[in-house]
Amino acid sequence: MQQDRIRNFSIIAHIDHGKSTLADRVLELTDTVSGREMREQVLDSMELERERGITIKAQAVRVAWKGHQLNLIDTPGHVDFTYEVSRSLQACEGAVLVVDAAQGVEAQTVANAYLAIENDLELLPVVNKIDLPQADPDGAAQELADLIGGDPDDVVRISAKTGQGVEAVLDAVIERIPPPSGDTDAPARALIFDSSYDQYRGVVAFVRVIDGAFRRGERLLAMAEGTRFEAEELGFFSPTMRASDTLEAGEVGYVITGLKDVSRLRVGDTLTSLERPAAEALPGYKDVKPMVFAGLFPTESDDYPDLRDALEKLKLNDAALVYEPETSQALGFGFRCGFLGLLHMEIVRERLEREFDLDLLVTAPNVAYRVLTKDGEDVEVHNPAEMPAEIERVDEPYIRASIIVPKEFVGPVMELCNERRGRFDHMEYLSEQRAVLIYELPLAEVVVDFYDQLKSRTRGYASFDYDIVGFREGDLVRLDVLIAGEPVDALSLILHRGSAYGRGRALVDKLREEIPRQLFDVPVQAAIGSRVIARETIKAKRKDVLAKCYGGDITRKRKLLERQKAGKKRMKQVGAVEVPQEAFLAVLNLDGAK
Amino acid sequence: MSADVQHLYVHLPFCGHRCGYCDFVTLVGRHGQHHRYVDALLEELELERGVLEPRLETVFLGGGTPTFTEPRALRRVLRALPPAEEVTVEANPETVTPELASLLRDEGVTRVSLGAQSFQPRLLAVLERHAGPQDVRRAFYHLRGVGFDNISLDLIYGIPGQSPADLAADIDEALTLGPEHLSCYELEAKRGTRFAHAHGAELARQAQAMEGYFETVVAALTAARYRWYETANFCRTADAAGGRDLRSQHNLGYWLGRDYLGIGIGAVSTVARRRWRNTPRLPAYLAALADGASPPREFEELSAAVRGRERVMLGLRLDEPFRVNGEEDLLDRDALDRLTRLGLVTRVGDELALSPRGRLLGGGVTAELLA
Q: Can you give the pLDDT at residue B73?
């Protein structure tokens, strides 16, 4: 297909603003699926022909409209996945930005709009649900125009539910979104914007061809990773998998690689032909490096192999998930896992618990730190216990947060952001009632209890989204918890010096409550380096005997001791101190990690 | 069954009143049934006589209140017993008259354990004890009067409302009487007792304040030249008693892991690899023995490992070192090392001993030490 006949676009929207319904209408209107099929096969749950044994979800669907090839590239259902949204946007020239006529602009709308603008995408603003009785299409259109700096009259007003105005959206895609402009004669280059794993066919790459063309059976090279493989099959989704002989410049489709390991084909890498390779890789994506880390430990140490197997399986379909074995003297064997963000962490954890039936203990999440040691060495630290003792400087990741609230909550939100070391960037009124606050915040301040606080301080009205803006120096310290003089690795934290005292005190108090009295005095301390900043002592028991033990008491007393011994075996040993697992849970919960 | 059991326990369940904290098998009043009960008891003794040595080391009559038993019935029991070195009877102060004291003396009882519990009327009332401090003293003198030279007093501490001064006064009062032996128990509100219902919450509240009472008792009695020979038991030191060993030989049998036969309702026996408990129900007990059959029993088979664990658990209650006898697999080595470092346990050769603090923490220490 000629490039000027191709349009590649995404639909982006705040959750429940009608992205999926609009996508469904597009498929229907373009006769890609019939009305009958439509009811059974919405884009969100599309599965491939089962006889081919493939159950890959379509990441991009090709439709035809007025002589043009439109590729609708899916963004994840949860727009919270900023990193996934940004991948999908990389494959497009434009995006349809959908806003609910009754709700107006929300935080994800703002975050996505920023992302799209950063990616130089043409934004096509759409107000949806104009058929709702409480709809305010004019108000929503004004908010949208203000957000992206356009004219409210250019906003397309539709009802994806009834189909009203959807044709106009498709027309506008052709009119306003620019066609691809790759070099058809240059050596082939394609961007991998997503990948999936199928147990029969191996890794399936979703690609956007930029230059040249790819042919079935061709030997290919993933330039960054150096992985070589044969293009077993090429094609596109419409809406089911359609094999084709070639994928040409400007087109979007899939490549079946036969590779058995997703990590060998990284999202963001550039595919080229091995025979006639491109000189340079495409400017890659923002490298999606994990930013949030937490230790995952099975509550029953026997479950460790199950946890390892479960992580391996998840990793097959989630290349962003990283993990490595971690041994904690307090929590036993587990894994240090890296996630792209909070939602990613929640989803992984939920899947492990639900799909793999594991009981997990999750340590307080922390972020990635870049540390310059006194020796002049640069290290990236993912685990507070690994923080070097001698530190020259520490950089931590910062986010740009968009928070949209009714105006009466602006004060409480600013207060919260200030408490969390936020730097105010700017505020805009979206309407008379609602404001968007843009703050820069250390990610570390957001991973712990920020959502909950935001919700409770705005009575649930705030909407929030963020993206990572980079690393900045912070006045950070490592806070260690010592039980009877032994540092408890699982409880170490890296935090801002200003919060160290409060947190140290809270940790120590909680542990004193939770750790049962022992046969000896147990000091519980919070320390920064060698300096103790909070201390409590769990006083030793002074007696621990059953007063009476005669002929009739022996069995009962023995069973009591046996139960006591079994209870001790379930405890985690920190030095000579037995700490019940519940104590760790209570302390980790103190940090608001759900 | 081999016939080498040296220790016999006889349960006499009748009481004038059931104290709120009591969870023993007891029956209130029932004067009309005392003789029928003794008939059955003696029948059970006949049935089991084969396991007993002809001459025993010890007999212990416990209850209930053995001395509440109708005197002629009590006499029948005492006369039917096999001869023994030590014959102990438990008594409540209000039941000890000069006549009863003489009866016990005449029928070969060598030792009386008197349930004093406290000398403070206020605290005795909390315990629902009917005897007052005067009854305790009177009973003690009656027993001394007929020549008993081995009398034990039971004391209870940790009674709701008991101050440190109350405890000190109780110990003083007890020492003034000069008993050969003292048993001092911390009050336990056992589940399901009336007492737990009435005072459980209060006991939990004051638990921390009363934590030091055990230490106080041990310190006061050892200072008065009593030997703290078992967790809750004290006797005059041999030095202070002209060389006599005043430990309860019967109870020592339990703590050394010896076999024992128990007869009567609810009584427990341990013989070789088997433990059994008689039915606590009087009608069932009477009916079976009226037919010359053993009473209904619950049996528990004891493996060598279980008996080993019990030997550790019981042996560590004593002041004399525990002999491991090479059974190293009974012990948790890591725990032993840990407890040694904490100064709670010492191991010398085959012997394991708890330090004084180790003994105050004997329950926790034992739970750790057991493999």
A: 96
- Indicate the CATH number for domain A477-590: 3.30.70.2570
Contact assessment for residue A253 and residue A235, using Cβ atoms and an 8 Å cutoff: yes
Confidence class for position A76, pLDDT limits 50, 70, 90: low
Which DSSP helix (H) or strand (E) runs through A509?
Answer: helix A497-514
Q: Kindly report the CATH number that applies to the domain delimited by B7-255.
A: 3.80.30.20
CATH code of the domain occupying B304-369: 1.10.10.920
Residue A82: what pLDDT? Answer: 60
> Mean pLDDT over residues A439-452, rounded?
87
Pairing of strands A391-406, A463-473: antiparallel
Instruction: Tell me the whole-structure pTM to 2 decimals.
Output: 0.66
Neighbours of B197 (CB within 10 A): 12
The encoded tokens of residue A276 equal: 């006639």
Phi/psi zone of residue A521: left (φ > 0), alpha (ψ -120 to 50 degrees), beta?
Answer: beta
Same fold, A189-273 and A370-474: no
**Per the CB < 8 Å rule, is B361 touching A555?**
no
pLDDT at B31: 84
Give the Å distances, CA to CA, from A50 to A47, A219, A255, A569.
Answer: 8, 27, 18, 50
Q: Which of A517, A521, A544 to mutate to test the interface with B (most CBs of B within 10 A)?
A: A544
CB < 8 Å to B370, chain A? 561-562, 565
pLDDT score of B44 more than 60: yes
CA-CA distance, A244 to A252, in Å (whole number)? 12
Q: Report CB contact under 8 Å: A549, B300.
A: no
Domain A292-362: homologous superfamily in CATH: Elongation Factor G (Translational Gtpase), domain 3 (3.30.70.870)
Whole-number Å distance between alpha carbons of B28 and B167: 30
Q: Is A547 on the interface with B (CB under 8 A)?
A: yes
Q: Among the residues of A74-208, which ranges form H helices? A: 82-90, 107-118, 137-148, 166-176
Closest CA to A534 of A587, A488, A480: A480
Output DSSP code: residue A130: T
Return the closest-CA partner of residue B85 out of B109, B51, B107, B101.
Answer: B109
Q: Which of B232, B310, B339 sits opposite A554 (nearest CB)?
A: B310
Cβ burial of A350 (10 Å; 0-12, 13-18, 19+) is exposed
And the tokens for B216?
A: 């106080």
Architecture category of domain A189-273 in CATH: Beta Barrel (2.40)
Domain spans in chain A, listed from the N-terminal domain onward: 3-176, 189-273, 292-362, 370-474, 477-590
**ipTM for this model:** 0.91
Q: What is the pLDDT of residues B297-320, one digit of tens each?
A: 999 999 999 999 999 999 999 999
- Binning pLDDT at 50, 70 and 90, where does residue A244 land? very high
- A256 contacts A236 by C-beta, under 8 angstroms: no
Highest averaged pLDDT of the listed ranges A218-227, A441-450, A478-487, B263-272: B263-272
Contact A544 B370 (CB under 8 A): no
| Confidence at A46, pLDDT banded by 50, 70, 90 | very low
pLDDT, residue A45, reads 41
Of A519, A548, A562, the CB nearest to B365: A519
CATH of A370-474, one of 3.40.190.10, 3.40.50.720, 3.30.70.240, 3.20.20.140: 3.30.70.240
Sign of CA dihedral A254, A256, A257, A260: positive
> B6 with B253: CB under 8 angstroms?
yes
Whether residues A543 and B215 touch (CB distance < 8 A) is answered with yes
| Mutation for A interface: B277, B316, B370, most A CBs within 10 A | B370
SS3 state of residue A86: helix
